[in-house]
Specification:
Structural class: mainly alpha
Oligomer: single chain
Number of strands: 0
Number of domains: 2
Distance between the termini: 140 Å
Order of helices and strands: HHHHH
Keywords: Coiled coil
């Protein structure tokens, strides 16, 4: 009796995992179709422009074929790359080398359906080779670009050569604070000396005034005695 709940729990967990996988696969297909639709629209515009420039007899057909090629290549490339990365693990844990491998694989796979339908089986091998190189090269450049952006964000604008400011180490900052503190103590000592000198001067002036008053009083009293 105790094994039945465990079996039911395992079945529910497996069914939940399968449902998540199906949902992720469905979402990948939908995203691939959206990317393909956008690329197909750009391909139709490019095909129409190229047909007009080349004075093709059927510009509409040329535009449709170009749009179909762009749609097939982009949608299959995006979907294959997403599925390959999903097989390797979460996107943030996939290494740059694994991303290059996934992009190269997607580049080779995306040529197969379009090559069979448009250009024939003979174009599959050279097309797969060329597009795998393009996918790997593009992913390698994207990895380098993201790595450079990450290093620039990590270093910050204070470390840039054009920045008028620079980052101060902790020891240098402590030394600057100690120097400022010493200067402040010296200024306070000078102010104390000046205050002491002013007080002494005032006391001397008071003493001098008192002596002058006493001398004046003595002079007055001596004059009164003579008279």
């Amino acid at each position: 009796m105790s094994k039945q709940p465990i079996i039911q729990t395992q079945q529910q967990a497996s069914s939940t995992k399968q449902g998540d996988v199906l949902d992720g696969f469905t979402q990948t297909i939908l995203n691939s179709l959206q990317v393909g639709a956008g690329a197909g629209a750009c391909g139709m515009l490019f095909g129409a422009t190229a047909a007009i420039i080349r004075s093709a007899p059927t510009p509409v057909l040329f535009s449709l074929v170009s749009g179909f090629q762009w749609f097939g290549l982009s949608s299959v490339f995006y979907g294959t790359r997403k599925l390959a990365i999903a097989r390797l693990g979460p996107d943030h844990k996939v290494t740059p080398a694994q991303k290059v491998t996934a992009s190269a694989t997607a580049g080779a796979v995306c040529v197969v359906p379009v090559g069979l339908l448009v250009r024939g089986p003979r174009s599959i091998l050279p097309g797969a080779f060329v597009f795998s190189l393009l996918g790997a090269g593009g992913q390698f450049a994207a990895n380098k670009w993201s790595a450079s952006d990450a290093s620039e964000k990590k270093s910050g604008w204070l470390d840039a050569k054009w920045s008028p400011f620079r980052r101060i180490p902790d020891e240098e900052y402590e030394n600057m604070l100690e120097e400022q503190l010493l200067r402040l103590e010296a200024d306070i000592a000078i102010v104390d000396e000046n205050l002491t000198a002013l007080r002494a001067q005032k006391e001397a002036e008071k003493v001098a005034q008192k002596e002058a008053q006493k001398a004046a009083e003595a002079t007055v009293s001596s004059r009164d005695g003579r008279s």
